[in-house]
Each structure stands twice: as C-alpha cells, then as structure tokens.
C-alpha cells in the first residue's frame, strides 16, 4: 500500500505560509506606522494640527541650526563607523586565534552590552567629570584637565567613544559566529606559508567574512543613529550648545518638549532616508571591495 506524499501544490505554498506571519508583523508594526508617519509629516502643528502644510516642516528643518548640527553629527558617525566595526573585529580575531585568556576576554568584552545606557552614562559622567578620576590622572602626568563633556569640539567624540565601548560586545559575538563559517584550512595554509598576522587578516579573514562585515556595518550604523538617546540624555542632554544633538534626540525634543509631533515626524522621515541611503552605499562599497580582493 502506497502512502501519498504531499502534493507539489502544497510544497510550493509551504514557504509562503511559513513566511506570512513575519510579513504581516513587519507590515503591521513597521511599514504601516512608517507610512502613517510620513503622511503626518506633511501636516501642521498647533493651530494647524492635522491640516496639510505641504513641505513646510521639511523647509523648517532645513533652516533649523539644531537639525543642521544633528545631520553634521550623522556625518561624523559615518566617518567613525569603520573604527567602531574594526575594534570588535580585531578583538574577535584575537579570540578566535586563541590568545591566552581568550575565554575570559569573551565574557569581559560582552559584559558592557548588558548594561543599561543610563547606567553606562552615569558611570562615565563620574569618570569623565572635570574633577573626575581621569582628569586627576592627567593632572598627575602634568597635563591640564580636559572638559570631556563640556567642550563642544570634544563632547561628541566622547559620547561616541562611550557608545562604542558599551555596544561592541554584541558585534564581537556576531564576528565570532562568522568565524565558525571560515575555512580553517586557509588559515593553516597562511600559517604554513609564514604569513604575518596583518597579511592573514587582510587576505584570508576579511574576504572570508565579507557578509558578516556587511551585516555588522549596517547594524552598527543603525545602532549609532537610533540607540544613543540614553547616553546623550544622561551625559550631555544634547549640549554643550547643541554640539551632541543627533536626529533621534532632536525628534524627542520636538515631540516631547516642544509638542510638535508633525515636525518630529518630518525629522524621523529624514532620518529613515539617511539610514537607508547610508546603508545601501556601505553594502555597495563593501561588495565592490570584496570582489576586488
């Protein structure tokens, strides 16, 4: 007696049935609210609440000095992004190559990722205060104190550095997962040929982890643009002189402090477009670099 197997028609439908719940969740909780936000950005605030105002909100953003500062800071984050990716990549490489104490390092490096940004910000406020421990050490070395959080030209670099320290543990875990797909025979061949660590990383590890690097680049960029609010709020509150404003902080300020949800929606739309364009450019550049290697 032959048992009939699943029909070809059902086999073709099975992938769509499995994917359907995730698609519905993305559409319902992501794409639909995004469309509503974009539509809301073309309406007015205050007395004009809900009334169409065309591009007025976007023109106001273009003329707002605080929003201009936030966009310049986005450019700074993009420039610092390779460094934010290289740090966990190199540390993951050393752990994968089993340097002494690699198991301990794995736990230590990941620990900051489980801390709340508020806690991290409070800790570094104490460490980086004008009369804090770091400036005391610098004074002992004969260097004058640095106003890490009060100097407009330094504050943004300080907050970004703290953010990288607090979050690179997650990227490190992703890199370690990527190493599990790397062909170990290539590393053995490089070791036999006497390749230096630098050449091994550049010619073996980087080409072998191209997709992992692309993923970490995009997720790190998204994290830097959308997950720094806690640090900014605790460490600088957007100051000094608005020097540490980012679009997400600007959005919160307009929505929560100024009661201008339509303008905040316009800023959110601009942030989404910036993230989309920057992400696509990064992936394109990384793919070209991978093909050239």
TrEMBL record:
Keyword Phosphoprotein: no
Domain ABC transmembrane type-1: start-end pairs: 71-282
Transmembrane feature ranges: 12-32, 74-97, 109-128, 154-177, 215-235, 262-286
Presence of the UniProt keyword Membrane in the record: yes
Listed CDD domains: TM_PBP2
Entry membrane topology: Multi-pass membrane protein
PANTHER family with a match to the protein in the record: ABC TRANSPORTER PERMEASE PROTEIN (PTHR30193), DIACETYLCHITOBIOSE UPTAKE SYSTEM PERMEASE PROTEIN NGCF (PTHR30193:SF41)
Principal location listed in the UniProt entry: membrane
Keywords: Cell membrane, Membrane, Sugar transport, Transmembrane, Transmembrane helix, Transport
Cellular component GO terms held in the UniProt record: plasma membrane
Protein name from the UniProt record: Multiple sugar transport system permease protein
Lineage: Bacteria, Bacillati, Actinomycetota, Actinomycetes, Streptosporangiales
InterPro entries, per database record: ABC_transporter_permease, MetI-like, MetI-like_sf
GO biological process: transmembrane transport
Family (UniProt): Belongs to the binding-protein-dependent transport system permease family.
Cellular location(s): Cell membrane
């Amino acid at each position: 007696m032959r048992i009939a197997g699943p029909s070809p028609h059902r086999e073709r439908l099975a992938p769509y049935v499995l994917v359907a719940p995730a698609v519905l969740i993305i559409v319902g909780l992501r794409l639909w609210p995004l469309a509503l936000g974009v539509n809301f950005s073309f309406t007015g605030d205050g007395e004009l609440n809900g009334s169409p105002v065309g591009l007025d909100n976007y023109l106001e953003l273009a003329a707002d000095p605080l929003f201009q500062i936030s966009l310049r800071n986005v450019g700074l984050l993009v420039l610092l992004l390779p460094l934010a990716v290289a740090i966990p990549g190199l540390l993951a490489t050393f752990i994968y190559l089993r340097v002494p104490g690699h198991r301990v390092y794995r736990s230590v490096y990941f620990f900051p990722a489980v801390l709340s940004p508020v806690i991290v910000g409070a800790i570094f406020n104490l460490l980086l205060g004008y009369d804090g421990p770091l400036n005391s050490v610098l004074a002992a070395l004969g260097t004058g104190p640095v106003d890490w959080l009060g100097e407009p030209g330094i504050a943004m670099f300080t907050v970004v550095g703290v953010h990288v320290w607090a979050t690179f543990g997650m990227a490190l875990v992703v890199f370690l997962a990527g190493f599990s797909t790397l062909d170990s025979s290539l590393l053995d061949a490089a070791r036999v040929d006497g390749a230096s660590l630098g050449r091994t990383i550049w010619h073996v590890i980087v080409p072998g982890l191209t997709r992992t690097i692309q993923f970490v680049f995009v997720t790190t960029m998204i994290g830097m643009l959308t997950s720094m609010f806690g640090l900014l709020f605790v460490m600088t509150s957007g100051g000094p002189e608005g020097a540490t404003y980012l679009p997400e902080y600007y959005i919160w300020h307009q929505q929560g402090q100024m009661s201008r949800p339509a303008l905040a929606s316009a800023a959110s739309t601009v942030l989404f477009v910036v993230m989309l364009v920057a992400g696509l450019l990064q992936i394109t550049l990384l793919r070209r670099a991978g093909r050239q290697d």
